[in-house]
Amino acid sequence: MSAHGHVEGQLPHEPEKATLEGRNKILGFWIFLGAEVVLFGTLFSAFIALRHQVLDGPHASELFELPTVFAATMILLTSSLMSVFAVQAMHKNQVKSMIWWLVLTVLLGLSFLVLEIVEFNTYVSEGHRMNTSAFSSSFYTLVGFHGGHVLFGVLWISLLIAQIFKKGLTVVTAPKIYLSAIYWHFIDVVWVFIFTVVYLMGKVG
Amino acid sequence: MATQAAHASHAHAHAHTVKRYKGLMDWLTTVDHKKIGILYLLAGFIFFIVGGLEAILIRIQLMKPMNDFVAADTFNELITMHGTTMIFLAAMPMLFALMNAVVPLQIGARDVAFPFLNALGFWTFFFGGVLLNISWFVGEVPDAGWTSYVPLAGPTFNGTHGVDYYVIGLQIAGIGTLLGGINFMATIINMRAPGMSFMRMPMFTWAIFVTSILIVFAFPALTVGLVALMFDRLFQANFFETGSGGNTVLWEHVFWIFGHPEVYILILPAFGVISEVVSTFSRKRLFGYSSMVFALVLIAFLGFMVWAHHMFTTGLGPVANALFSIATMLIAVPTGVKIFNWLFTLWGGSIKFTTASLFAIGFIPTFVLGGVTGVMLASAPADYQYHDTYFVVAHFHYVIVGGLILGIFAGLHYWWPKMFGRMLNEGLGKLTFWTFFIGFHLTFFVQHFLGLLGMPRRVWTYLPNQGFDTMNLISSIGAFLMGIGTIVFVINVIVTWAKPRNAEADAWEDGRSLEWSIPSPPPEYNFKQLPLVRGSDAWWKEKREGKTEMTPAEPLGPIHMPSPSILPFIMSVGLFVAGFGFMYHIYWLAGLGILITFACMFLRSVFDDHGFHIDPEEEVHA
């Protein structure tokens, strides 16, 4: 596939699907997300199997502070919305506003990460460490895997913003933006499940 | 597809010059699916020899009662590494070799959807396998069995680094497998030539498609299992530490939710090979094509529903055991459909007994035997008797060696001319078949009876006069015969190599699918012009109408190719280095390894690959 699919600065309507490479990437990425579903599904299963094994450590209902977690949830959901706007701007070929939406996406993602680090720090100081109990191990692994995905997404989208500045919106960069948006929504959906299964169910016992 | 052709022609003006490598660097940087297939074959076969030598050592130890040829702890290491190596580092890579070599050709594509990822998949598999086997040189070898059941594999009972090598080696190799699965799913969905509808795809391509789906949905479960075990071992997590609230049965579930689909990941490609070989050498179209496809999909679906039949004696209770028992027996139905379809394909055909077709025909009754013992094992009450005996060992070697390995040998002999441009020697090939086939049955047939007599699996030695002595000796003799068969194959390869290329495009004259319509070995771009597919058995159809080549679906023009890259190799080295860092708690080294990998990802993202163009017309005239 040629890297120069656009003629005289004119991008096709859906630039991410204009080339076979772009279409391959989108399909391949959806398949990858299928694999990620299994990955997180297995982590959730392990957590559900082990979540009552707290030993001497604090129980979920004593540990979790719902207001902070709720704030983190809203931040991540909003971040996901920002990436929707970014893709819409891309489809309208408004590169500048697309960049702004992406910057907002990253900033909100970063705030989520900061809240999560603060949260983990508090838990550790309350005696809830990786090696405390089976509950703590599976908690940190599941939520930590999600946090790792958020961190990766933040780095990735930041790199893409830099690339857009350098290369502009082309049929090569457009699929990347589109994929990062799908990825970001996926991370968001996983968090909705974490919020429900880990935090809300943890509160009610 | 039409846009691809259009782009290829107008992109000619933008031709970029790309550095092309020769010799070793060519192999380290290649993104060509045909070369990656050869790399998979070479690496997989070397690991096959390693795993085979381990098997021979196991059989020497068990040749006579109260033997002390190897020490008891070495024996545990041997059985662990034999199983792990054979499944993850020998069988799967050799399947990946065939799918890389053949699938893009069968669907009329110039390459896979993600050539770079394809190379990355190979190198992560390779370095994962190397890491696992370095354990032999360090002297701390995995010894908890290929299933690494906890608590035996946990830090409490396994204090050395042995199981760390298992956990991290398989983790790295597993990344490669997952990438391969994603790649081939996307390739088969998106890259088919014009006219190649799903229901016109050759059966091998169908098998690989379904296998790829299984890989994508099974391997992440193993990833999580290995992560949990790794955290338990390296960071004092408590997933499987019962003293701290962990649960050992959780490992069994996670391992087998991956592990049972894995069995079908191994056997479905063999089914695909057998379908191709049987049909070609019977010179008939495959009997019951659509029922074959349906059976593949049904086996894959049921394959995810039966994992707990590995855990009948764990104590899940009668309801769970009954359900998993029934689900397991159900798989016999689609498998039976396939067996009968092969028989009906052979029926009335004018059969050519080449080496490939001998392996395929030998496969059918052998696999039926493995299937029958499978249904026996599926009966939960009876399984309490068979569990952990040599009956189980006999069963899974019948399906894996008698199924998969015979399938791989059939596929190798069949597609060798396409991969290398040389016909393997038929005399030596038939010698390989008979020694390997007879050796196989000699080794494993008696093991059914050893198991029924009560010989437990994984024992280092046994007392004399329990009725085990003679059958163990027979079994060991058979193992040597299989070893001889493998050596004959290697000799065949070397002898063939010494001769000039002699393979025709349609090497067996009866080829049915697209790979036989192009030269052996194919040019770098596979198809000068993408072919137009006008029916199932596309090439056969054209031949029957007197044509000597496929109808082209695009005009002749320059062909866009992806650039070679060393990044996949370096990325895998990064993971390899990081693995050692984690294992020995040298965190700066782990950080460095991860950094190398991420730096490569950064470079790959920042620098666009413009590729280069080949003009087939110029090549012809040059």
How is this structure best described in words?
The complex is a heterodimer of chains A (205) and B (622). Chain A is mainly α and 205 residues long. Chain A is built from 6 helices and no strands. In chain A, helix 1 packs parallel to helix 6, helix 3 runs antiparallel to helix 4 and helix 4 packs antiparallel against helix 5. Chain A is elongated and about 65 Å long. The N terminus of chain A is likely disordered. By secondary structure, chain B is mainly alpha-helical. Chain B is built from 20 helices and 2 strands. Chain B has a two-stranded antiparallel ribbon with strand order 1-2. In chain B, helix 8 runs antiparallel to helix 9, helix 12 packs antiparallel against helix 14 and helix 12 runs parallel beside helix 15. The two termini of chain B are 29 Å apart. Classes of the chains: A mainly alpha (205), B mainly alpha (622). The interface between A and B is large, with 43 and 52 residues.
Topology (elements, then pairings):
The complex is a heterodimer of chains A (205) and B (622).
Chain A: H1 20-50, H2 60-63, H3 66-91, H4 95-125, H5 134-167, H6 173-204
Chain B: H1 2-10, H2 23-29, H3 33-61, H4 72-106, H5 115-138, H6 162-190, H7 203-234, H8 248-282, H9 289-303, H10 318-330, H11 332-346, H12 355-378, H13 380-386, H14 390-420, H15 426-453, H16 469-498, H17 538-544, E1 559-561, H18 567-583, H19 587-606, E2 612-614, H20 616-621
Antiparallel strand pairs in B: 1-2
